[in-house]
Write the structure tokens for this entry.
Amino acid sequence: MKKVCFFLLLLVAAFVQVQGQSQKATVYLLRPDGPDKYVPYYTYIDQTLLCKLGRGKYSVHEVDPGEHKFHAQYKGNVKSTPETELIVNLEAGKTYYIAINIVTKAFGKGSFYCTQLSEAEGVKWAEAFVLDKKCL
């Protein structure tokens, strides 16, 4: 009987460990109102396209835990730079909110940058924006 209890305990411990390892982090990408009303922002994680976000929209993604680089740009070849990247160390089971912003210059293209929002601020923004279902 002791062997059976020990085996069951070991089995449950292994199951819990596997469940913890397979969990992902949830990332919200949020694009506020601003310039370029009709131009989508191409959002990337580690040089891989996640979504083309329109103005006033957000997308939700399940991402593996670990360190990741987020950036946004206009359509074209992937070209992130350290100035435009946001590096976030994602933890399993946690939710992150990232705003996609742009700073424009007179008569020129803008520079994109990403900022991490607090959970309270991210939830507030997500409630005000529209979920972009094409990204899912």
